[in-house]
Design a protein that fits this description.
This protein is α+β, with helices and mostly antiparallel strands and 247 residues long. It contains ten helices and seven strands. Helices cover 34% and strands 12% of the residues. The structure holds iron/sulfur cluster and FE2/S2 (inorganic) cluster (FES).
Length: 247
């Protein structure tokens, strides 16, 4: 099986091709480890948990941002890949997908540091801007908060985010507007807005042209999210609420 991998080390970028033996259950991350351990130990990529929990290994695999540790090689080489996202100019760059091969590139919309590693500073800067911590109604809660199961269920849709930035790399608006806060940051802001334990009025933090109002509802964010977080739904609901408040 052929893996075509983007390479960059501060100079001109290029692609390297590697023949990797196929094994049952093999993920793209497994294949990258095979390359690093047997063919080229200079290949750089980010990972930690190897179990779709830490969010470190998001990269562009056959032109779709996704977790390398969760993507089975078999589905890609046997043409069973079902993920289809809307056009994004960043996806036109680089090499094309070849039948029977796997194309691995760094996540779009963030600067490349080395090979498949991107600089995530901007993604986390936007995340922190949303003040992503609970601001409770009392300084020290004396007892547990009782919560409606429906509230809990909606919250869970958003607390599942593992901050992998796949949605940021898939969003055409992030590709065009470097100031757009992006799907994950906005979903996080909405997550605290709907938390009944939180006392702050937060929607205003993104009530500007690079926040809630920049989204064009391409829905790539939801399609690529490994945890089924729906940032587009959060953005739509936040906009409706702000419109109602404005009369
Ligand atoms: S919303 Fe989904 S795709 Fe976006 S950062 Fe969170 S887990 Fe990753
Ligand atoms: S290595 Fe942790 S999510 Fe892939």
């Amino acid at each position: 099986m052929k893996l075509k991998v983007f390479r960059y080390d501060g100079d001109e970028s290029h692609y390297d091709e590697f023949e990797v033996p196929h094994k049952p259950g093999q993920t793209v991350l497994d294949a990258l480890f095979y390359i690093q351990e047997n063919l080229d130990d200079s290949l750089s990529f980010r990972y930690s948990c190897r179990g779709a929990v830490c969010g470190s290994c998001a990269m562009l695999i056959n032109k779709v941002p996704r977790l390398a540790c969760r993507t089975q090689v078999k589905t890609l080489v046997e043409g069973e890949d079902k993920v289809k996202i809307k056009h994004c100019p960043a996806l036109d760059k680089g090499d094309e997908i070849e039948d029977g091969a796997v194309l691995v590139e760094p996540l779009p919309h963030l600067p490349v540091e080395k090979d498949l590693i991107v600089d995530q500073d901007k993604f986390f800067e936007y995340y922190r801007e949303m003040e992503p911590m609970l601001k409770t109604k009392s300084e020290v809660p004396g007892e547990e908060y009782e919560m409606d199961p429906e509230d809990v269920s909606e919250l869970e849709d958003y607390t599942n985010c593992i901050l992998c930035a796949a949605c940021f790399g898939a969003c055409p608006v992030d590709g065009e507007n470097v100031n757009y806060r992006g799907p994950a940051a906005l979903a996080k802001l909405y997550r605290f807005h709907i938390d009944p334990r939180d006392k702050s009025e937060r929607l205003s933090l993104a009530d500007h042209e690079d926040g809630w109002w920049a989204c064009e509802f391409h829905t790539n964010c939801q399609k690529v999210c490994p945890k089924n977080v729906p940032p587009n739904i959060a953005i739509g609901k936040a906009r409706s609420k702000l419109e109602k408040e404005d009369g």
